[in-house]
Amino acid sequence: MKIFYDKPFTVPRWIILMADTVIVTASFALSYFILKQFQFPVLVRGHFFIHAGLFSVLSLAVFYAMRIHTGLIRYSNTKDMFRIFSAILVVSLIYPFISEVIAGRLYHVPSLDMPTLLVLNFFISSSLLILFRTSIKEVYILAKGYAMTDVKKVLIYGSDNNAILIKQAIEAAGNHKFVVSGFIQSGGQKINSTIEQKRVYHSRELPELHKKLTIDKLILPNAQSGHPEFRAIIDCCLNLGIKVQTVPPSEQWVSGKLSLGQMQDLKIEDLLPRKPIQINNQLVSEEIRGKRVLITGAAGSIGSEIVRQVMSYHPEMVILCDQAESPLHETQLELEEKYPSAKIKTFIASIRNLRRMLIPFKEYRPHIVFHAAAYKHVPMMEKHPEEAILTNVMGTRNMADLSVCFGVEKFVMISTDKAVNPTNIMGASKRIAETYVQSLNHASNNPPAAEFLSRLIQDDDDDSLTVTANVKTKFITTRFGNVLGSNGSVIPRFRAQIQHGGPITVTHPDITRYFMTIPEAVQLVLEAATMGHGGEIFIFDMGEPVKIADLAVNMIKLSGLVPDKDINIVYTGLRPGEKLYEELLNEKEKTLPTHHEKIKIAKVVSRSYKEVLSDIESLTDLCKQGDHFKLVGKMKGIVPEFISNNSEFSKLDEVNKTRKKVVFIPAFTDAVKMQ
Q1: 10 Å Cβ neighbour count for 276?
Q2: Can you tell me the distance from the alpha carbon of 480 to that of 391, in angstroms, rounded to the nearest whole number?
Q3: Nearest to 405 by CA among 443, 352, 453
């Protein structure tokens, strides 16, 4: 029976042609007998054999010309059935003329009641031919099922034309490891009907079907998995251990045909509880088209996606800046392949090096700066607070100051929800960076930074260098939570742990985060950049928060495994600086709506530029001393809501509490005495 697996047996085409001819000849004979009311004495006179012979020869010629015998019977579909109907119709239209010329004039055979005969024959022969193919197809499937022990049974969601095309693509691909068992949907008039010899089931029957038919896979055509209709059936599949795959829209199929390689396993981002994000592409295009755009952190997960999306809006030039050589090179190659005529410049440097960062501003004079470069790993920054200050704060200051001096129109900073009520050094450093760009935006015509850079530039030996003083830079901050698939996120780590057989490590069973895909986050960044007038902190609506433990469970299920059976989940305890719940606003902040439902503006109290600059310079001096406790203590003074969590720096919070009590109690006692 191996023939059904390795090399399926194929019936020679001439046998199929002969079989079809025999079937239509037999159906013609049956129609003839019915028309003559089975008067056999009439039949033996020879008229029948002449008519049957002519019809048989004509059918053979038409069938051969229309090639109804060339398709594989085991993959017969509606197109094949249509060809059968067409061929028989052609035979029926031609035969009266052939009969009149040859049988009537040559052999003087009496004419028949042609309309009745041919109509009757059309229905009989069509039915028999379709029955023949359907029977062969079912026998093949049955035989293949007995021959293969690892055959996968598939359900296709929907009953529309796309669903039918998916079924036909699976069967036409000749992949004998998959058998379509039927269609399934959540409602509609087609429930319990039959399409292409396959039944349409209701989605509530899925558990029973899984048990009865041993369903292995569900295919979602053009799935919008965030829709409740899809989420319910996906959740059911995950609980039953049924693998879920999606296919792209039909307009993305290669040459109008679906390739099995285009079927993709359902991704964890498809299960996020949020609506698809839509932006005003026209406004974004008007903002970016023909502009020179500088992107820091261009080789990172967020930065590289900013690069990709910016390129789609036809900028005059894109300058990619990062200190990571290999990822930056890979990003450059990707862009050059996709946009061969575009102006793409790469610049390897650290944003901490002010003199080095002068070069792209001097040479390319960017109109827009997207600042995505930053240190973001919370536990790492707890061990190296000076690195967080030098990169996240001083690096941001360098880029912001340079933007002012060289007349950048818009400076867009990528921040994080960890800057809100920070419990770690990374979040606090980003909050200080937010404060700096805000204060710079509110400074009249941004003069302080211009004056600062002017002095530096004067020492630069470039006499031709001029500082643009007539353009006020608009500083815009975007604040959002975790993105799926970013460097260091839980998704790649969980995926790697699953591949190695587990366990999956989660810090705490209740730890909860907001999640968004990288493309979605960048879409909102570009939209915010378009609507920003300067000084805003835009926060993104990221949908419902997700428990990391639930994320781990779903990833195990998506891999076709069983949580705590095939893959264990182990809780390791909160890491230094980590908190259970992230926030997009602190209790003192309020929001204002924008024209985009997913984007809001945080009302944040700003500070004066000179005050913020003084604090930052103090932090810079403390970085040189190497005293982490003094440095973090200063950060807590700048950001009063910064309360360390699960960190050695929590001692500083206890000291601050004690100091407050020492100041407060005597004052209260004196007040009592005065009464």
Answers
A1: 8
A2: 19
A3: 453
Residue 13 in 3-state DSSP?
A: helix
Residue 195, helix vs strand vs coil: strand
Residue whose C-alpha is closest to residue 315's, from 351, 364, 385, 384 = 364
Nearest-5° angle of CA 659, CA 663, CA 664? 115
How far apart CA 295 and CA 369 sit, in angstroms, is: 6
Helix H, strand E, coil C: the string for 439-508 is HHHHCCCCHHHHHHHHHHHHCCCCCCCCCECCCCCEEEEEECCEEECCCCCHHHHHHHHHHCCCCEEECC
What are 231-273's pLDDT values in tens digits?
778 878 888 888 887 877 666 666 666 666 667 777 776 676 6
Residues of the chain with CATH 3.40.50.720: 150-266, 281-480+516-542+584-603
Q: Are 418 and 588 in contact (CB under 8 A)?
A: no
What is the β-pairing status of strands 178-185 and 194-195? unpaired
Cβ within 8 Å of residue 267, ≥6 positions away: 558
DSSP for 253-286, written as a single string: SBTTB--GGG-EEPPGGGG-SSPPP---HHHHHH
Within the chain, how many helices (H) and strands (E) appear?
23, 22
In eight-state DSSP terms, residue 345 is E
Which residue reads 């300067």 in tokens?
534
Cα–Cα distance, 414 to 416 (Å, whole number): 7
Structural contact between residues 364 and 292, judged by C-beta atoms closer than 8 angstroms: yes
- The C-alpha atoms of residue 200 and residue 183 are separated, in whole angstroms, by 5
H helix runs in 222-353, sequence order: 228-240, 281-288, 301-311, 325-338
Instruction: Write out pLDDT tens, residues 49-67.
Output: 767 777 777 777 777 777 6
**What CATH number matches the domain at 150-266, 2.30.40.10, 3.30.70.1400, 3.40.50.720, 3.30.450.40?**
3.40.50.720
Q: Quick one: fold of 281-480+516-542+584-603? A: Rossmann fold (3.40.50)
Give the residue ranges of the chain where pLDDT is below 70: 1-14, 35-48, 50, 67-82, 95, 99-114, 136-151, 173-177, 222-229, 249-262, 269-270, 272-280, 444-470, 485-488, 542-543, 582-595, 597, 655-675
Q: What are phi and psi of 383, to 5 degrees?
A: -85, -20
- Give the 3-state secondary structure of residue 207: helix
For residue 353, give the amino acid letter: N
Task: Specify the residue for token string 């470069």.
Answer: 373
Task: Please identify which residue in the block is written with the tokens 């013609």.
Answer: 28
410 closest CA partner among 569, 532, 573, 265: 532
CB 547 within 8 A of CB 512: yes
Q: Residue 309: what pLDDT?
A: 93
Q: Give the largest Cα separation in the chain, rounded.
A: 138
User: 392 to each of 413, 626, 632, how far by Cα in Å?
Assistant: 11, 17, 14
SS3 helix, strand, coil % of the chain, rounded to 5? 50, 15, 35
Which three-class secondary structure string do you get for 521-560?
HHHHHHHHHHHCCCCCEEEECCCCCEEHHHHHHHHHHHCC
Backbone angles phi, psi at 591, to 5 degrees: -125, 155
Q: Decide if 207 contacts 240 (C-beta within 8 A).
A: yes
Are the C-beta atoms of residues 410 and 368 closer than 8 Å to each other?
yes
User: Residue 198: enclosing H or E segment and its boundaries?
Assistant: strand 198-202
Rounded distance between C-alpha atoms, residue 411 and residue 371, angstroms: 7
Distances (CA, A) of 518 to 71, 147, 414: 45, 46, 13
3-state secondary structure 408-433: CCEEEEECCHHHCCCCCHHHHHHHHH
pTM of the complete model = 0.66
